[in-house]
């Protein structure tokens, strides 16, 4: 299991928990990943003010620095929105796990968490 804050999952909470999975054969999340739906960074279709985002995102990193953090989603698209939120908040260096959940869950040897 990963240390909290190292991997942030940008999918909706229902997909993260494994309640629903409209695209992949396996539902759930990478063990140790923290859920932070990308939409929480927005207000009225725009990114929230940088100071607000920073105050919310920084604690999610735990003991990690932004350049140690990785964001993911279902297929890498909404993870980019979360990455942009970090950048907007002045938290530079976060990386995207491009394969995201679709790539992770396609290997039956990899662990899956739900809930």
UniProtKB/TrEMBL annotation:
What keyword terms does UniProt attach to this protein?
A: Repeat, Transferase
Q: Which domain of life is it from?
A: Bacteria
Question: What are the residue boundaries of the Rhodanese domain, all occurrences included?
Answer: 1-113
- Statement: the UniProt record of this protein carries the keyword Nucleotide-binding: no
GO terms, molecular function: thiosulfate-cyanide sulfurtransferase activity
Q: Does the keyword Repeat apply?
A: yes
What's the protein name? Sulfurtransferase
Q: Which organism is it from?
A: Stenotrophomonas humi
